[in-house]
Design a protein that fits this description.
The protein is built from 9 helices and 12 strands. It is of the alpha+beta class and 305 residues long.
């Protein structure tokens, strides 16, 4: 039954490639003036990140991390660590009572699962271990999935884990030197989409060199060739008791910060702070899927799945 729930089927309509009109020259100049410490050694990729990011004007930085949960005027150099306060525009996923039904909310479950994955799946050739998280993966079809994410100096490993049976189900390695673009920003929908706004931030790892998705990939819910991964913070982030340290395992912003540093070290990709477009236009199936948290392991009445 769990396998059937993972399948993403819905009607999709609209264009496959999204591009944005350029900003007026004066706005573009102002935007460039606000970009701190641009490293001129950043690798030059012949890409158009707006194809999958939807940005009107993308600003890149290879030497600084800007957390958009601040007011935008914060001096990045004076405050190297991100502000982990909840950004005012966030729509908090689920309520406090509902979140207690998640198996990952139980004490020790996430820590034990992550340690098991580190021991079983990481090897010396995978590089230096940099961190681990429990995040929400947002698929091409706008479905939310609970995923363990491991970061090393060479790769990002995304792990599908059964938190009821406490066992690994599947995993995927994405090597950092294959990435050409990383986009950090608010998750948005196309202007013609009927899907309500998320008011949520995410990070997208891309290796498509700015090209639009092929038709056979964009319209195939079973495709394994999607050239990007999108992550957001896990819902537990907003409900976990304690301070920054206790919530860090579920924090997309912290993952994005460490990912950026790892990418900078090998010079493999450009970093952009801009909106991330989720190409969902009608989204009835994904709305139902996400509202009922079908991508997460939790207690559902007399059943658990």
């Amino acid at each position: 039954m769990g396998d059937l729930l993972e399948e993403d089927l819905e009607f999709r309509g609209g264009t496959l490639q999204l591009s944005s009109e350029n900003l007026p020259p004066e706005n573009a100049n102002n935007q460039r003036d606000k970009t701190p410490n641009i490293n001129t050694n950043t690798p030059s990729h012949n890409v158009n990140p707006s194809v999958l990011s939807g940005a009107d004007s993308l600003t890149s930085s290879s030497s600084s991390f800007a957390d958009a949960r601040t007011d935008g005027t914060t001096n990045v150099q004076a405050s190297p660590e991100p502000n982990h306060g909840v950004y005012p525009r966030y729509d908090v996923p689920f309520d406090k009572d509902n979140i207690k039904d998640f198996f990952t909310f139980r004490k020790g479950v996430v820590e034990n699962a992550i340690q098991e994955c580190i021991t079983a799946l990481l090897f010396p050739e995978d590089g230096e271990y940099l961190g681990s998280w429990l995040l929400t993966e947002i698929t091409l079809w706008d479905n939310e999935k609970e995923r363990i994410v491991l970061l090393t100096s060479r790769l990002v490993m995304t792990i599908k884990y059964d938190f009821i049976a406490m066992k690994q189900l599947d995993f995927k390695k994405t090597y950092l030197d294959d990435l050409d673009t990383i986009v950090i920003g608010e998750l948005v929908y196309p202007p013609s989409s009927l899907v309500p706004e998320r008011n949520l931030r995410g990070v997208r790892l891309m290796w498509n060199k700015g090209e639009p998705l092929p038709v056979k990939t964009a319209w195939n819910p079973f495709s394994q060739d999607v050239p990007f991964i999108t992550f957001a913070s896990h819902p537990i982030y907003w409900h976990k008791e304690g301070g920054v340290q206790e919530r860090s395992t579920y924090d997309m912003e912290l993952f994005a910060q460490k990912l950026q540093r790892a990418v900078e070290a090998i010079g493999s990709a450009c970093i952009h702070h801009s909106p991330i477009v989720i190409q969902s236009y009608l989204g009835l199936t994904s709305l139902l899927h996400n509202k009922t948290s079908m991508g997460f392991f939790k207690v559902r009445g007399k059943f658990s799945f």
